[in-house]
Every structure is written in structure tokens, then in C-alpha cells.
Amino acid sequence: MKRVYLDHIAATPLHPLVLEAMLPYLKENFSNPQSLHSTGQEALVALEEAREKLAELINSSESEIFFTSSGSESNNFALKGLALTHREQGTHLVLSAIEHQSVLHSVKSLEKLGFTSSLVPVDKWGMVDPEDVRKTIRKDTILVSIMLANSEVGTLEPVAEIAKICRSRNVLIHTDAVAAVGNIPVDVKELGVDALSLAGDQFYGPKGSAALYLKKGTRILPFIDGGIQESGRRAGTENVAGIVGLGKAAEIAKREMEERTQKLEPLRDRLIDLLPQKVEHVILTGHREKRLPHHASFCVEFIEGEAMLLNLDMKGIATSSGSACTSRALKASHVLLAMGIDHATAQGSIVFSLIKDTSASDIDYLLEVFPPIIQRLRGMSPLYTQYLEEKKK
Amino acid sequence: MIYSEKVMEHFQNPRNVGVIKDADGVGQVGNPVCGDMMTFYIKVKDNRLADIKFQTFGCGAAIAVSSIVSEMAMGKTLEEAMKITNSLVAEELGGLPKNKLHCSNLGADALHKAIEDYRERQKALKKDKPARSPSEEKCYCPYCEGLLEDLEDFCQKCQIELEKCPECGEPTKKGEEKCIHCGAKKQRI
Fold it and tell me: Which of A3, A7, A382, B129 has the highest Cβ tally under 10 A?
């Protein structure tokens, strides 16, 4: 059976060159980078080289990179660390309604400690209006957190503009750039942010390797107390192989990003243009132009996401859905609801996220097998029957 | 795979999908807010279910549940069909993931509603209006099987807050010493 992987947002495959770069640190050189002997020092050199490569990818300096274990950890580190460090200036936080759970739940935890927060809405394309951020910032606001790209609907947020507002109001700005870094050009100086989260498994690096960028001079409490690793801000023996892999993935991303985008964008557009043409009542979610180059997300009306996902899986196609049934909490996607999509339509969420090896024939295969699946599921949907009855009238 | 073989088999080849235009009874439960909605149509002859058809908006479990309920009830007397319970349905399917158990309630409920509708019609209380329940914005608590008043992380009816079991990762009653799913003892904070 043909196998088509279209779940980039969940995890990317490990680039063969990344694996190759990692292997020595899983085999021969198992040393602790803090050891003074020569193999320990070799590991330290590899670690610092990775830091340099990652810094180059986002145009920061090496000392502004702090390695972590996941994008979620980076978000927790940034939100909790910055809020707690600056609480004497105020206790109010501003974030968008479509942030990742690791941001939303970090803020939930902070609220138990006495912080308060305001959610900035998004429009029907999932986009934040910088003016809304300006209006939401209060005297006691200390931190704004707005994501750079949303993994569920692909929309890119105007973070540079928002950062400008934050600077003028003397408020810190963090951006969750996990879905963006390594896939679109990200320059921390152009963005003007104080903190930025990124993760290796979103650009062909290994899982368990991520980082937080923290602008020089930004005060932050340690996230893990202990030794001197990561300038004492995030203690614990470093995941050397993972970090080396992250560095290699960053190096390759910098080199190949443009080429990847040039290849994937037309495939994405083909899917976005043709699927709604082939099947009626299929709606694109997220912004048509301002979106990730590898991301095509839809809501298929009258049917439910998990049923689609399982059927596609039987045809060898791996995808994601934001439907309530696919989430363990059995709740519809907060992102789609925030965009004003109703519950029934949000249940039909399906996300296709392309990887660098996705081919035109993969997309053609999807376009061939998906419409009959939709028709079959609609054939057993009471909502579709209702719709057809109402149409007759 | 998260589902048993039998669930997947029914999901792929659901029995008795469709609509009976001149049905003797119609039952509809659930709504898209919870993620599942089912409509059952029945034909009754000599107090037995002569034909059953269903339509389902929902996940793999919901579709499989509808299918097996229709199969279990076909040919049964109305009294026998009323005795089909959610646990019998789940058992017949070789088990369901814990957080999908509420789907099995829906299947039996939709069938029972169709039978009740038939009985109402027989009593001539209703003439030919199908018993379409108003699509209330309510969900069933997947764990205590009560009605959720809103979309919170707890069931207001039984006043249970839900939290993730550190052992199996399944949601379980908050404050309970043992996880209701895997039986693991949770640390008391």
C-alpha cells in the first residue's frame, strides 16, 4: 500500500544527516560535557557548535540560546520564568485565544499564584489584530505571548508589529515559534521579541530537543535549579546527541528552507484549490496566503474528524484532526471555536501538513482517495440527510 | 490501534445504514457539540423489530456502536430490545476505550427512543410526527455517564472533577485514591 505521511505538525521524520551527526554521541562519546577530560570537552565543543548553528538560523547570538527538552518546556520556561521574575512590575499577562495548551495552561497555573490574564481574540482566519493587543495591554501588564504560526490552522501572526507595540509600552513579548522555526525564515532581531520558543522535531531534528531564545539582558529565574548547565537557567546533564541533532537540523534548514518552500507551496496550493472543488462543503481553515508553506487545513461539513482520519489511515495516509473525538478530553478545538467556527463544523476538522519529501503524486493520491471517504461518511450522517432535506424545501 | 478488531470491522462495514422513510418509530440522541449524533429508524411487525436503519455523525466508536446495536436488536421483540444496555453493547464490541464508553450509551439510547416513539404513536398521542428531540447543547460525562451541564472538565450532576491518571494517562475522578481505569494507586498530594 502507498504510504503518505501528512502529519508534519505532529512530528517530522529525522533527516538522515541529522541521525548521522547524532550517532557518535550515542555510541563512542557518551561523556558529560561538564567533565574536564578530553572526551567530555569534545562533547562540550559539539554542544557549543550546535548552539552556534541554531543561533545562526534565528539570527541571535549563542549566549541567547537555552536548550530544553520540548517546545512545551520552552513555553513553560518563558511564561512562568518571565512572569515570576517580573511580578514586582505587575501581574497581568496578555495572550491570544489560539495559543498552544502549553502556553494556556502555564497561564492557568500562574493564575493560581495571583496572576491575571486577558485573551486577545482572533478573526475568522485565526489572525490576531495588533490593535487588539494594544487595547488589551494595561498598566500592570508585564508580558504578552502571541504565537508566530498556529499549527492547527497554519495562520502566521503579525508578531513583529505586536512586538513594536509591546516595546513602546515597555512590556515583554514572547512568541511560541515552534511551528515556524526551521520552516519559514525567523529572525529574532526583525521580530523584535524578548523570548521565542522552538523545537527540533518540527524541522527534521530529533524529539526531545528544543530551545528557548532569550534576548540578552532579559532577566529570568532558572527553570530547573541545579548545576551550571545552560548558564544555570536550566540545570541537568545535557541531551548531547539531541542537541547536536538540533544543531545539524538548523544548519540544514537554513540551507534548504527556500528550496523546500518552493517545492511545498505549490503542492499545498494544489490541495487547497482542488479539494473544495472536488467535494462541496469543504472549508479551508486559517488564512489563505499568510500561512505555513506546508500546511493545508480544512473543515469537512456534516462528518467527524476521527472517522475521516481512520479511513485515511486505512488508505496509508497519516493526518491529524482537531475534532473533539480525537482529543482525549473530548473537547472541540479551542482554535477553531475562537475563529467563530461552530461546534458541528469544528468536528469535521482535518489537517494535512506536508513534509519535505511529499510529492505531487502523494497529493494526487490524497485527492483521489479522500472524496469517496467523505461521500461514504456523509452517506451515514444524519446531519447530511437533514441538510439535503432542507435543501429540497 | 485504539479500537478492537470488532469495532474496526463494524466501522469499516457498518450494517443497516440508512433511513426508513415510512418508519414506525424514530429516535435521535446526541448533538454535534459532544461529537456524536445518532438517528435510529425502526419498522415493527407483530411486536418485533422487522427492520432497523440508522445514521450516525461521529467517531469510529459511534459508528461501530450504531452498527452493532442495529444487529443486536434486529428481529427481537420490543421488550427484548429495550433490555439492550450500553455495557452489553460495549461487551459485544470486544470493549471500547474508556473515553469512548459514552458512545455505547448513545446507541442503546437512540434505539430505545425509537421504540418509545413507536409506542407513543401507537397510543395515538402522536400521529405522524417523528420524535425529534431538541438538540440540547449537552454532553454525557464519559466517565460517570451523567449529563454534563456545560463543557467543563467535570460533571456537575455527580460533582466529579476529572484529572489525568499518572499511570495510564486516562482521565479519572479527581481525589480518588485509585484510578478507575487501571486501578493504579495515585499519590496523594
Answer: A382
